Amino acid sequence: METGFCEPVMGSVAPVARSLGERIDAVHATVRELAARQPPLRRERLSGIHNPWGHASVIADAWRFLDLCEDPAILDRVEQVIGPDIVLWDSQLYLEAASYLRFVEAQREGRYWPVLPLAGAVVLVAPGHPSAPVSCFDLAALGGAPRPALDPRAPLYVIRYMPAASRFVRDPHAPANWTAMEEQPLLNYATRPLWLVRGEDRAGNDFVTGFSPAVPRWAGHQPQEH
Asked: Most exposed: 5, 129, 186, 224, by fewest CB within 10 Å?
């Protein structure tokens, strides 16, 4: 299930057919621009950067990132880890790989995943690393798995997938969501949109939330509706 847009969408053109290398190059061009910004962008603003309806869409072309997240070669690697039914639920750009490595070392990867049962795959895309630009890890083994040699000062794009046999929990009071609100209050995973990128949904997941933002209302007194 690729994006496959051949018409401009929000100023973007994503060809129907593209190689993994071309998709990485397209993302790399955007990443260079973001990394050069001063003052540096807050980490939270780069969360969910693949979502064309998210807050990150005002700073980057989200369709390029979504196109990469749906790349067949990447999904083939993810399928080897979590099976043929795959849901994309999050991605995040880290302007320095070192910040993500510290995140993993602190055992925070997976801590905020509102996924039951907890399972998933994490894909690391190092756009400036020509020999090993993409690697895929089982979430359960990520902490102890050998990671590719990364330039700690270079950007790193992290993509998070869950098996479609698990359920994405949108209850804000669920343990993972509650912990996320306490420890990273500027992020709300409970309202993230989901993409079924391969296979079938087997857990009755909500694929509507996140695509339909609430209608804005004037902040003052609202007349009663009859």
From this structure: 224
